[in-house]
Give the backbone structure.
Amino acid sequence: QGDWSSDVCSSDLKTMKAIFRVLQKKYPKLELVIAWNKPMVKLGETYIFGASNTKNYILIAPWDTKVLKRLAPKLKEYEVLKKTVRVPNDWKVDSKLLIEMVKDQIKKSS
């Protein structure tokens, strides 16, 4: 996890590590990789989910906009962009939401 974590401030790093810990615990076959200098999880050759941080927020992203559309009712408290969801840097990680995003992506890639 070295490359991406060196560019992340400590509060963001804690949140981002928690995000990926949830996903890897639920889906141990997911591989944590660095792509475009950002942490992502893959299943085989298929990217499933990624995250990145900025000074003011963290972006989380399933790799299919249809997942965001389907989960729109559950995302009302967040700012949903075209392909990503903005969460606060100190986000209390919503495990159920993350797992649901990834579950949809895994189904689509199977």
Observations:
- The chain has a mean pLDDT of 88.
- The radius of gyration is 13 Å.
- Strands lie at 31-35, 38-43, 46-53, 58-62, 79-80, 85-87.
